[in-house]
Specification:
The complex is a heterodimer of chains A (about 675) and B (about 55).
Chain A: H1 2-25, H2 33-59, H3 69-72, H4 84-95, H5 99-107, H6 112-139, H7 146-153, H8 156-185, H9 189-212, H10 217-240, H11 245-248, H12 252-268, H13 275-300, H14 324-331, H15 339-345, H16 359-382, H17 386-393, H18 396-399, H19 403-412, H20 419-428, H21 441-455, H22 462-496, H23 509-532, H24 538-568, H25 574-596, H26 604-617, H27 623-662
Chain B: H1 2-15, H2 18-28, H3 34-48
The chains are: A mainly alpha (about 675), B mainly alpha (about 55).
Chain lengths: ~675, ~55
């Protein structure tokens, strides 16, 4: 039996090695997507079996005899011992958002190789380790949050900075995901109608669940799903209707204003009416679509059309400017390592873990699955013809607003595409044009539609699948927008309540309205900035989001390293310190370049200077607009700088603690005391 | 196959808060009613949406 085990893991190791070697060294002909699937699946299996188990056994010393907070503090609500696979599904559903889907699609501008390697290696050695260690730390501390642990383990500075960073990330996150939706829906009556229809459907579900069939969430969600499917079919009819199509054909600015208004209403309305029912539906749809995509890729086994490297490794990319290092590593955050995950790992999940050893599949395993979702997104983007991929993702400011100019520019890069190709593709998916649909969502939807249509139905159903994919992406992005606005409002009310007590009361309507407006105003400002940006907005907002998210991961890894140091001295600190060093190098370099690079396509300050020169020369098309763009570039630079300073403060504070411990100073571990577990296996 | 089906249903019920509602009824010795669901749901959702959703 033991020999069989050695043989099996030897084969898995060979699969990982051959797969990674194959995708890294393959040149010339197109590579089949199965190479990516085999390389990633074998790497994940190997990493889980050996690295996660090593961390669990030797570093964390997980002990099933020790009662978890779910058992000790059981209250039937948030603290509840739960079956490990259910917690796994719960945790995965909570960490999987649009990030692992959009990031790889954007990073594919470098070719499939850099992003794929970062997703696999970063996932196994960075992201999964961060999620696992933070989950373990929170589980040993009665389910405490990252901010509370930072305060206890590092000091007050860490405890203060973590929530401020979270609030800033949320503002940028909401703006950037809002921009993804705007770019996917602009000029698309089919898509706009489908997404608009999800709102009355969600309200209907809310009323159904509240008054007509209380407690029947699955039944209600099934009904909602049928109605959403019907709205996709109806969307085609709307797009073909001469009277209705113009009503749902909206400009980017109108869509942005509609999303801002929606965010405000959703934040102020009762949560059961709109947010909760759509969240249930979007969670189920999300899990279903991820499963469908995995099956579709295995069934179709498409060839990747993008090369391993494109010419844009030199930093002149049209989607976002900057070289592979550092920009690939901040563009793909959630698929490799994401600071936001540490909030989930120190939120609901540690309160549901029944046995300590369950933390490995839940913390480490869920992140590996998320990483695999990112690999699938990379495959979906790379199955498109490179010319089509760049035509969809390149902003008008780079390739030109006229289709003939755009195809000429893209073809001159060595990625041939014609206006006829683009027109046929747009017609097949029921759109008027697919040029400059930046943000990643439309090209991901095209790739997914291509895979789904080849699984069955062919070209006849590609339009349905395209809009199904757009609906799937927009559905959970909008849920993030309204939930995020609500959370931002709570955080702001909590903060302002110290100054004006009535503003802190969540039941006081004027306070609710004022703080909702403030939060919506903050992310709405950045959303409008993205819409007005001649380079499409993604070029400046996505890196800003990536930087802030990775800086949060740096905070989480600082907390994790401090805890490991206190537990074992320097012996195991490399486990979290190595990814921390890499992340700090990549993120601080990216942030520095975004502020100070002399190239206007990269540096915010250089961009502002270039626009000022245009103003001085008197050649600006619109003086007021140019002044706004200058202000926005400086604002982005200031935010980037502020994030760097905040995280540098935590880093320095952590270093101070680490040096103290290594010199033999106090190393008090703030774990809850040991209590013997009495939980029986059959209770789970 | 049946085990997988049972697991998927249990997962969906957990994600849909139906399991949590059952636990709530059992823990407090209550029976299901529209009023009880609304009370449970308000408390649960208030806590659920005090945390950010991941990106």
């Amino acid at each position: 039996m033991k020999i069989l085990g050695y043989l099996l893991w030897g084969l898995v190791a060979c699969g990982a090695g051959i797969g990674l070697g194959g995708i890294a060294l393959h040149r010339g002909e197109h590579i089949n997507s199965l190479w990516l699937v085999v390389a990633s699946a074998c790497s994940y299996a190997f990493a889980y079996r050996f690295y996660a188990k090593f961390i669990a056994a030797k570093v964390m010393v997980l002990n099933d005899q020790r009662a978890t907070p779910a058992e000790r503090l059981r209250n039937g609500h948030d603290f509840e011992p739960t079956n490990k696979w259910i917690v796994f599904g719960h945790h995965f559903a909570a960490i999987a958002g649009p990030g692992p889907l959009v990031g790889p699609v954007l990073a594919a501008q470098f070719g499939y190789l850099p992003g794929t390697l970062w997703i696999i290696i970063g996932g196994c050695l960075g992201g999964a380790v961060q999620d696992f260690v933070i989950l373990f730390a929170s589980m040993r501390r009665d389910g405490k949050s990252l901010g509370q642990m930072a305060k206890e383990e590092i000091g007050k500075v860490g405890g203060l900075i973590a929530p401020v960073t979270v609030l800033m990330i949320m503002v940028i996150l909401l703006a950037v995901v809002g921009l993804v939706v705007v770019n996917a829906l602009k000029g698309s009556p089919w898509g706009t109608f489908t997404i608009a229809a999800t709102m009355p459907i969600a309200v209907l579900m809310g009323l159904y669940l509240r008054f007509w069939r209380p407690g029947k969430v699955l039944e209600c969600s099934a009904l909602g799903f049928v109605l959403v499917m019907a709205s996709i079919f109806a969307g085609r009819w709307v797009a073909e209707s001469a009277s209705l199509a113009p009503v749902f054909t909206l400009t980017a600015m109108t869509l942005a204003l509609a999303i801002i208004l929606y965010g405000f209403l959703a934040s102020a309305l009762p949560v059961w009416l709109l947010l909760a029912p759509r969240d249930y539906l979007s969670t189920f749809v999300k899990l279903g679509v991820v499963l469908m995509l995995a099956v579709g890729i295995l069934f179709v086994r498409p060839e990747l059309q993008l090369p391993p490297f494109t010419r844009f490794v030199d930093g002149t990319g049209p989607i976002f400017a900057g070289k592979i290092f550092p920009f690939c590593f901040i563009t793909i955050a959630c698929g490799a390592i994401s600071g936001f995950h540490s909030l989930i790992s120190s939120g609901t999940t540690p309160k549901m873990i029944a046995k300590e050893t369950h933390a490995a599949p839940v913390g480490y395993g869920s992140m590996l699955l998320e990483s695999f979702v990112a690999i699938m997104a990379m495959i979906a983007a790379c199955v498109l013809q490179p010319g089509v991929y760049f035509a969809v993702n390149s902003p008008e400011g780079v390739v030109g607003a006229v289709p003939a100019a755009a195809v000429a520019t893209i073809s001159s890069w060595g990625f041939p595409v014609t206006t006829a190709d683009m027109a046929t593709l747009a017609q097949s998916v029921g759109e008027t044009t697919l040029f400059s649909r930046t943000g990643g969502a439309p090209s991901l939807a095209l790739g997914m539609a291509h895979i789904f249509a080849r699984s069955g139905g062919g070209q006849a159903v590609i339009g349905f699948w395209y809009h199904f994919a757009i609906m799937f992406e927009a559905l959970f992005i909008l849920t993030i927008i309204d939930a995020g606005t609500r959370v931002g409002r709570f955080m702001l009310q909590d903060l302002l309540g110290h100054v004006v007590p009535s503003l802190g009361r969540t039941s006081w309507m004027p306070g609710v309205i004022a703080t909702s407006a403030a939060v919506v105003g903050a992310w709405g400002y950045f959303l409008v900035q993205g819409v007005r940006d001649p380079l499409g907005g993604i070029n400046s907002l996505w890196p800003l989001f990536g930087i802030s998210n990775q800086l949060l991961a740096s905070i989480a890894l600082c907390v994790a390293t401090t805890i490991l140091l206190k537990m074992h001295g320097a012996k195991f600190m490399w486990i979290t310190c190595a990814p921390l060093v890499w992340l700090v190098s990549a993120t601080f370099t990216a942030a520095w370049q975004k502020i100070f690079s002399p190239l206007p396509a990269i540096g915010f300050l250089a961009q502002a200077e270039k626009l000022e020169a245009v103003l001085r020369a008197g050649t600006a098309a619109n003086v007021a607009d140019t002044q706004t763009l200058i202000f926005n570039a400086r604002l982005d630079a200031a935010i980037c700088g502020l994030l760097m300073v905040l995280v540098a403060m935590i880093l320095l504070d952590s270093l101070r603690i680490w040096v103290g411990i290594l010199r033999g100073g106090e190393r008090q571990v703030h774990e809850a005391p040991f209590v013997l577990s009495r939980l029986q296996a059959e209770e789970l | 196959m049946r085990r997988v089906g049972r697991f998927l249903l249990a997962l969906l019920r957990e994600l849909g808060d139906e399991n949590a509602y059952r636990r709530h009824l059992a823990a407090h010795g209550k029976t299901h009613s529209g009023e009880e669901w609304r009370r449970f749901s308000d408390h649960r959702l208030q806590k659920k949406y005090a945390n950010a959703k991941c990106c």
